[in-house]
Structures are given as structure tokens and as C-alpha cells.
Amino acid sequence: MTEERVRVAAVGDIHCGADCEGTLRPMFEAAAREADILLLLGDLTKYGKPEEVELLRHELEPMRGIPVVAVLGNHDFESGNEDRVKAALADAGVTVLDGTATTMLGIGFAGTKGFGGGFGRRSLMAWGEQATKAFVQEAVDEAAKLERALGELRTEQKVVLLHYSPVHETIVGEPEQIAPFLGSTRLEEPIDRFRADVVFHGHAHYGSPDGRTKSGIPVHNVAMPLLQRIFPDRPPFRLVEIAVRRALHAR
């Protein structure tokens, strides 16, 4: 067996809109130089409009030839065009995960958007009004999608992509009143059970960069506004190296 180190860059909440032309390209140029693969953690557009995706496709041109894997965020659903957003990104060569998995460079990636619901003993329960039950059910469904995606992977290394946080630790810094809208503990259980190696998410612009699940799996909040604030002197993406073991094949 040989061991290689794959450099994974991750960023979310880039919010590409009508005013983004040329503003994201320097970040993607830096990612293309420093990383072997790029992960995008939702809120790729401001309102999920087709013209915003078209601009994003141009901004992503420096990543040509480098794998890009993404999940959508709540902003990408705002205009009801999420299927068109996914299709346009796929046309640009981006692999969009929605309760699905893919394997690239020897690493398995499982992703879904996720949803809110709160954390720990303060999680919202499916009780009372139908609207409350529907809100909770969305989180349950997203956790089930992540579970199915992780179950598809046969790789030694597993990376999870989410937009919403699976742990409270990485939303610390946000107003506590909005915690139920920033993530859900329900997403944490499949991550621990399938022993993922690392989790990336966005959404919490004023949260904290690092946390861990109950079993100790690293969780990184890579919302671009957060990275720009705490790492002002470097490109706004998180770079993580993952060791991949490959079998030697005799000729």
C-alpha cells in the first residue's frame, strides 16, 4: 500500500449574485493552486436565480480540470429553481450531492443540504401543530438522506458535506434565539455511526470554525463570511489534507 495526501479546500455561503462578477475568481484561482478538490457547502447563490448560476459558472472557470463537489443551501431554494440550479452546476462539471454520494481521488463524499431543528435536549419535537410536525419531519428526512448516502460509500475515508450544522459547537457566536434554524442534532447520528472522517458545513456566518461530534469527528464551519473575518490574511477557504491509502498493483 502507498499513502497519498489529498488536499481538500472547502467554502460555503459564497452568495453569488448580480454584483459578484470577478469577485470570486481570485479565491477559486487560489483554490486551484493549493487544492486537489474543492467542496462548496451551500448558499452558492443569493436567490437561486439562473442568471446567478451562470455568473458562478464563469467565476469557477479557474477550477477547470479540478473536481468540485457541492450541496445546495437555503438561498439556492429561494426562487424555486433548485432543480435548474443543480442542472446548471452539473453542466459546469460540478457534482451536486442531495442525499447522494460520490468517490473521487480515493475519498468518499456524502452530502445533503440538511435542515434546522435545534440541538441536544433543546431539539424541536414533532408535537402539536401540523406546521411544527412538518418542520421536524424535514430534518428527519434530511438525516435519513445523509444516512443513505453514507451507506453507499465503500471507501476508507468518508467526508460529509452539509449546509446546516450537525453540532451546536460551530454555531456558537450566533444569537442563541436562532439556533433551531442553523442546524440539527439529527444530522449528527449517522455521521458518528458511519464513522466519517470529517464534516464541512456553512450557514452560520457568525458561528465558530471548529467543533466535534459526540464521537470526536471534526466538524468545520466554512461559511465564507466567517472565514474572511477570522482569517483575513488568506483566501477564504479551509484547506484540509486527507491521507488516502492506495493498493500497489504489480505489473
Largest sheet: 6 strands, mixed
Give a count of the beta strands, DSSP E runs of length 2 or more.
11
Compute the average pLDDT: 95
Query: Structural class from helices and strands?
Result: alpha/beta
Give the strand line-up of the largest sheet.
5-6-7-8-10-9
Beta content? 15-25%
How would you explain this protein's 3D organization?
With about 250 residues, the chain is an alpha/beta fold. Helix content is about 25%, strand content about 20%. The protein contains six helices and eleven strands. α1 links the parallel β1 and β2. The longest helix has 23 residues. The two termini are about 15 Å apart. The mean pLDDT is about 95.
Which tags fit this structure?
alpha/beta; globular; six-stranded mixed β-sheet; single chain; 251 residues
Q: Could you write a compact summary of the structure shown?
A:
Helix content is 26%, strand content 22%. It has 251 residues and is α/β, with parallel strands linked by helices.
Write the SSE topology:
Elements: E1 2-11, H1 25-34, E2 37-41, H2 50-59, E3 68-71, H3 82-91, E4 94-96, E5 100-104, E6 107-111, H4 130-152, E7 158-161, H5 188-193, E8 198-201, E9 210-212, E10 218-221, H6 224-230, E11 238-246
Parallel strand pairs: 1-2, 2-3, 3-4, 6-7, 7-8, 8-10
Antiparallel strand pairs: 1-11, 5-6, 9-10
Helix pairs in contact: 2-3
